[in-house]
Write a structure and sequence with these properties.
The chain folds into two domains: 1-33, no CATH class; 34-287, Rossmann fold (3-Layer(aba) Sandwich), CATH 3.40.50. 39% of the residues lie in helices and 7% in strands. The protein has nine helices and five strands, in the order H-E-H-H-E-E-H-H-H-E-H-E-H-H.
């Protein structure tokens, strides 16, 4: 069901109840009741690294008002409740991530009609550990060989299969249980490294040439696990692979959607920049039928 169809359904239901429902297609639409939209997830959803910071969020979350949920809300007129938080893991959906930060699913209810999220990349430290490990190994070998793949082999992939996938599946089911009337859209992570090694990128992303495809394959595996969990729970998977190809951290400024480890513009490296967040919003709206 597209967001427009969802809006039409809500309008009919509200009319039957004697209420006035919204139009969804533009913020200027006359609407007494904007679409209730809750944004969950980790730093890729929170726009961590971008300014300005959201004054309603804990500083520890590094949530930006330029994150893709804010972009979606601005484009659709939805009423956004943004509880995204940098560093979030699946356990933070039902537990407090930081003192004073409520479990993310507390923001959900029967009235929620749209939920978006990215999650899984921080679970067990798998993906961030891989980036750090491969970066450290690449510095040691001056960018030669595949030291990270040699050291870790299928360790990270096994963690994705045995730990990350079931955790993401359980988290998405928790979302479905708390917001049974919502369309749930879980985004894949945009590409961080290119499909092929780019020697000119080593100064920005100090990863050995042979480990670039290793990390690319790991991200492919992680996104596949998230997609599988979405299919299992009736959520919509927003595949970022094709859209973000060529916009990785090795691409030039103005083209890249992800900032590199060194010499980037974000205060949190290896995260989407403003263009990346805008494009994540655009891709999500396209998948949901709001082109």
């Amino acid at each position: 069901m597209s967001m427009r169809a969802l809006a039409r359904g809500l309008t009919a239901a509200a009319a039957a109840a004697g209420a006035v429902a919204l139009g969804l297609t533009a913020p200027t639409a006359q609407a007494a009741t904007p679409l209730p939209y809750v944004a969950l997830g980790d730093s890729y959803s929170a726009g961590s690294g971008l300014l300005p910071l959201d004054p309603t969020a804990s500083p520890l979350c590094a949530r930006s008002t330029a994150d893709y949920p804010h972009v979606i809300a601005a484009r659709t007129g939805a009423r956004l409740t943004d509880v995204t938080c940098g560093g979030a893991e699946t356990k933070d959906f039902t537990g407090s991530q930081y003192p004073g930060v409520a479990p993310q699913t507390d923001a959900l209810s029967d009235s929620t009609r749209l939920v978006t999220l990215t999650i899984g990349g921080n679970d067990s430290g798998t993906f961030i550990d891989a980036i750090l490990a491969c970066g450290s190994a690449g510095v040691v070998t001056a960018g030669q060989g595949s030291p990270c793949a040699s050291l870790y082999g299928d360790t990270f992939d096994n963690t994705v299969d045995n730990t990350t996938y079931p955790a993401v599946r359980a988290a998405l089911q928790q979302v479905r249980d708390k917001a049974p009337n919502a369309r749930v859209a879980v985004l894949g992570y945009p590409w961080i490294v290119p499909a092929k090694s780019d020697p000119s990128c080593f100064a920005k992303m100090p990863i050995a040439s042979g480990d670039v495809p290793y990390l690319r394959d790991l991200e492919t595996h992680l996104n596949a696990a998230v997609e599988h969990a979405a299919q299992d729970t009736g959520a919509t998977f927003v595949d970022m692979a094709s859209a973000s190809d060529g916009h990785d951290a090795c691409a030039p400024a103005g083209t890249r959607w992800i900032e590199p480890i060194l010499f980037g513009t974000n205060f949190v490296p290896v995260h989407p920049n403003a263009l990346g967040e805008q494009q994540m919003a655009a891709r999500t709206l396209a998948v949901l039928g709001e082109n």
